[in-house]
Amino acid sequence: xxxxxxxxxxxxxxxxxxxxxxxxxxxxxxxxxxxxxxxxxxxxxxxxxxxxxxxxxxxxxxxxxxxxxxxxxxxxxxxxxxxxxxxxxxxxxxxxxxxxxxxxxxxxxxxxxxxxxxxxxxxxxxxxxxxxxxxxxxxxxxxxxxxxxxxxxxxxxxxxxxxxxxxxxxxxxxxxxxxxxxxxxxxxxxxxxxxxxxxxxxxxxxxxxxxxxxxxxxxxxxxxxxxxxxxxxxxxxxxxxxxxxxxxxxxxxxxxxxxxxxxxxxxxxxxxxxxxxxxxxxxxxxxxxxxxxxxxxxxxxxxxxxxxxxxxxxxxxxxxxxxxxxxxxxxxxxxxxxxxxxxxxxxxxxxxxxxxxxxxxxxxxxxxxxxxxxxxxxxxxxxxxxxxxxxxxxxxxxxxxxxxxxxxxxxxxxxxxxxxxxxxxxxxxxxxxxxxxxxxxxxxxxxxxxxxxxxxxxxxxxxxxxxxxxxxxxxxxxxxxx
Length: 482
Prior knowledge:
This protein is of the alpha+beta class. The protein is 52% helix and 18% strand. The protein has 18 helices and 12 strands. The chain has a 5-stranded antiparallel β-sheet. Strands 7-9-10-12-11 form a 5-stranded mixed β-sheet. It has a two-stranded antiparallel ribbon with strand order 6-8. Helix 7 packs antiparallel against helix 8. The longest helix is centred in the N-terminal third of the chain and has 50 residues. The protein is elongated, with a radius of gyration of 36 Å.
């Protein structure tokens, strides 16, 4: 007796194989899918047996069949069904049985099985390709270091005996390019090692405060060059001697600080370090690196820690970089049992914070011997108030006009003294300070920047005067509107 859903024709529409059978295994119904996939006609199907279809369960070694026993078929069982031509294919069974027989639904899983096999093959191929890529990257980066270091060494030797200022400036540019290339090579090599699972951290004791001295000193020149304020605060309860990978901690901080300086034109960069936990010989440190730079929108923050990605393609063109720095930073932090976060808003700066865990054999009260440099920095910067960054960037405000006046005075002085690199930096700052009205100033500022790059005194002075006149007219116009 057929079920109502079979009488309604539902079974004929499904892609699964549907069979009805009696208690002896004789097939009383087969839907269209069953006929097509098993290769039987309707008459052949109705004269067939479940034992012939499920030979794996019922066929003896001599080719004969045992008596049909429905208990040998289980609901949810994965088995094979045999076609009329003796070929077989894998299926997943679903059925109900009663004293009169039963109804069976079989899902053809051959495609899924083939896909699983193919996925495994592709995964194995990808792992092999990844291994080959990592080995290739490691070899290439090692090979690249040799010529870069060779160029750098020869340039440093040449610069010791060079008196001509123009030649010395050119050699400094070459050294700067070599340092950039070395940083890129190191990032690629670190990333390759991490991808291959061969990256390890070194555990040794070092002076935490001395490390921080060196890191801050490394970025002080760039901060002063851009005339940014620097704020540093270090928790005095942090032990002076800690155990961890000094090089990699420095790499994390150097990457975050270099980004902060790179993306900040006006305002300040601050570094805060505090001790958040001490348990036995383990200490947890929390770092914050804040800036008043270009900021990052909430939508773009998800891309930050992904490999080879920056939040905007124009950032690569304007500021450079491979997009690996923050990805490596995140992995390093996690290897030190910490986490990293970012809080930011477009145009209002960013705050990167991370925690790491280190070991120490010191007692907490032994940290009083911190470096004199940091004792002075703490005293100097703890009372520093946040500058009115937003007001300085809002064109026409009192703070904005005052900042523009100071930058213009320094710009013309730099031109007069022939400090072209400094003048170009100041011109870029003026562009940022007038970003709300960039359309009116875009052309004269561009002409000024081009003249500065060519170190053309007369054109630079003329372009400077045009920028100043345009700014004066715009500011007066703003005041008249008010």
